[in-house]
Amino acid sequence: MTPCSDEAEAAQAARTPVSPQSYFWNDNNMIEWIHHGIDTVTGMPYAQAGSGDAAVLVHGALADARMWRPHQALLAEQWRTTAVTLRYHFGSEDADPLRRRADSAPFGVATHAEDLAAFIEGMNRGPVHLVAWSYSAHAALYLACHRPHLLRSVFVYEPGFPTYVTDAQALQVFGEDAARMYGPMGAALHSGDLPGAVELLMDASGQRQGYFREQPAHRRQIQRDNAHTIPLLMTQTPPPAITAEQLRSVCVPVCVAQGAQTRPVFSVVCNAAAKAMPQARHLVVDHADHMWPDEQPAAFCSALQSFWECDTVARRTDA
Fold first, then answer.
1. 181: CATH
2. How confident is the model over 145-161, as a mean pLDDT?
């Protein structure tokens, strides 16, 4: 890949994207602008918007495709985005035990990675830009390793599975912070307090007590709607063991992004991914933590566009 110049990246970052309100709430034209559907192969709901090169947006834990609505509005003039809801999350067929298919695959990254591969193939749009946050980032990296023909690029924000962390001290730091982050949530879940588990997980992700309650109502609603996935997260199948060697051989453009203030359970994994992929871009966002995509959709979209447009330049240069 041919890296972009600092000047070009700075100019891209300075761009002020269009306000999402102009797409979602003005003139009551949301339904005319965005297309909703359910994938017949995987049962995953999706929402499509905009026109241009294809990008697939994948949420993390306690979320679904709705979290990407502001981002889709911001990107709509130049990019055709498809936000998907992973299997077992709110709105999917497998979210409701009464509608769940007998042959449903178990909850876990391996299932969600295969679902994403099937979904992208079914789009018939050629290779896509894949964007994934947190839980789903491991699935995106798995596809980069094993299904690169489906991908034009991969942008991951703070993956959380340490299968490619090889440094013993870093693994210890990861384990200690994982216990701090997930221990209280697990205790609440064990006592039957599912709403409390949701609140504790979001407080831990936002890195302060009270974070969940400080969020806008629509974000809290999405998280509550996906509360049923917490027991599934805690008992999920083991994630595919991506190795550092496999990451080094990834041939599609990758950006590993993280907040400068994020907690070790995420920063350890991000740093290991970036170290394993010297060919990738490593973006560290000042004054940001794990919740940056939700809190700053305009800045997140600017980072996406900077990466995507540099990727386009690189491919043209390399051709």
1. 3.40.50.1820
2. 97
